[in-house]
Amino acid sequence: MWRIFKRATIGLTVVGTAAIAVDTVAYDQRAVRVGRSLLAATATAWDFYNIDPKNMNSEHNSRIHRRVAERIVNTCRTNGGLYIKLGQGFTTASHILPPEYDILRTLHDKAPVVDFYKVEKLFREDFGRSPQEMFKEFNPVPVASASIAQVHEAYLEDGRKVAVKVQKPHIRGQIEADLLCNRLILYFFDWFFDIPVIWSADHTEAQLRKETDFINEKANGEKAARDFKQSGLPVYIPSNVDSHCSSRVLTSEWIDGVKIDDAEGIRQIGLTPKTVMDLVIEANSYQLFVTGFVHADPHAGNVFVRVKNGKPEIVMLDHGLYADCSPKFRREFTELFRAAILSDHETVERVVHEWGFTESNLLTSLILMRNYSNEEKAGHLRSTKANDIDAFQNRAKQNLRNFLKDTKKTPRDLIFVSRSMNITRANNKYLGSLSNRINIMAHYANQAYHGSVKVKGLTARLTDASFNLRLALIGLLFDMMEWWRSFNRIFLGRETKNFEDLMDNNVKDTLSERFGMQLPKDSFD
Asked: Which of 54, 378, 495, 511 could form a disulfide with 517 if both were Cys (CB 3.0 to 4.6 A apart)?
């Protein structure tokens, strides 16, 4: 019996090793990666099942969240490629995740690079020539590396300095298996927690496939450049070198600048962080409300600032992931944002219900990232209330399930539009919430609204005046809070909450009241 067991063990080991070797060499480790991900998802589901709902801030729950966060990071880093991109998506939900998940931000750090001989092989497959033959100079050591590509510094024959973005070779072979695994995990969580999440899979997968096609990225950048030329905003999109581009290689002009989260670097080039962030929010708002063609990944690594002709200019990079919104969605989104400022509850309810949601207060609060209630006046920022956790948890799942009542109606554009807005909000908050994000966005929403609806009659003009008055009041509140913060910091030596902090707390109140989500105080940081 022992001999049979021993032989069986040896046989299984040999077969398993051979299978892994074949999967690694011929199939880019697809099976291994899927298996690793499914195991991690199963362990995570079990951990969440053991969360104590009556004591959300307990050490027991903190250990679970820490274990889950570390598991996500380790799985994404080990699998690499698209998994890092998917893991980075969790960081855009930093405003609703407990602080233990801050470790997910490390997924934005420099990703592993691929060996140069693989880069040469890819160039020969796509162009029939090596990088050394195509460029006057080509640095084999990448200057940056992300989830699906790395960037090399190079010079063209005419002496122009360029950035060469090269897709990592295994991405194409792995993407379909990775997306299938992501879909299986969504199905599992949809079933296990009885909460609708699978509805977003088709649109998300389609966008991620587009992101791996650099011809699509090239077209996105060129369209965005045309849009911004019409805006009058100081926003620049680097031009491309068509002859040196393929579906896996993108060659663009080299741009030197300062990352928008580098406050000290911004000051060193003679600008202020507030001036820069105002422009960044304006650029995002212009895309959201005016063009509807929205950069969906505007994190600090993709947005620089430089001084040109003595003035600041925003430089936007990496145009692979965009939300190309339908005119209908852009119009409704503009109406919703403007109506929330005006406390036009009828319009808010109409748009929200047309989108298949039942909770107008929560959805509008999450979109604006400030509290909205159809029972209160616009601009009112209420204080946190003590609530009964047991009662919340008993109704939380039902409310969350009902929140998305009809996912067939839910506009898929909202997925990446929300992502873009939240990344911009996080950029502003990282610099200390120096810019009045709500007012800047509201001005562009109003501009877009009047672009499609001509103001006629006394009632319409009074409504517009009311809108501007409300923005002025919000602006006054913002300025008073900034003055109070400065007074406390300079004369009392203490830090107080900024405008974004206060709005974050109000949204947490809404989540708490409607869904029983008891979030830690710093879960929006």
From this structure: 511
| Residue 291 per-residue DSSP state | I
Instruction: Tell me how far apart the alpha carbons of residues 17 and 25 are, in angstroms, rounded to a whole number.
Output: 12
CA distances from 304 to 48, 163, 177, 255 (A): 39, 15, 34, 9
Distance, in Å, from the CA atom of 136 to the CA atom of 133, rounded to the nearest integer, reads 8
**Structural tokens at position 296:** 């969906």
Q: What is the largest CA-CA distance in the chain?
A: 95
Give me the amino acid identity at 320: G
Sign of the C-alpha dihedral computed for residues 411, 333, 369 and 498 taken in this order = positive
Measured distance CA(501)–CA(433) in Å, rounded: 8
Instruction: Give every CB contact of residue 189 below 8 A, 6+ residues apart in sequence.
Output: 41, 45, 195, 197
Tens of pLDDT, residue by residue over 16-46, are 333 333 333 333 466 777 788 788 888 888 8
332 contacts 340 by C-beta, under 8 angstroms: no
Closest CA to 187 of 197, 179, 177: 197
Indicate the pTM of the whole model.
Answer: 0.75
The letter for the amino acid at 56 is M
| 297 a catalytic residue | yes
CA–CA dist 514, 357 (Å, integer): 13
Q: Which of 261, 262, 297, 318 is catalytic?
A: 297
- C-alpha angle 436/441/446, rounded to 5°? 130
Asked if 167 and 149 count as a contact pair (C-beta separation under 8 A), the reply is yes
Determine the angle formed by the axes of helices 413-430 and 273-285, rounding to 10 degrees.
170
Q: What's the rounded Cα separation, in Å, for the pair 198 and 98?
A: 23
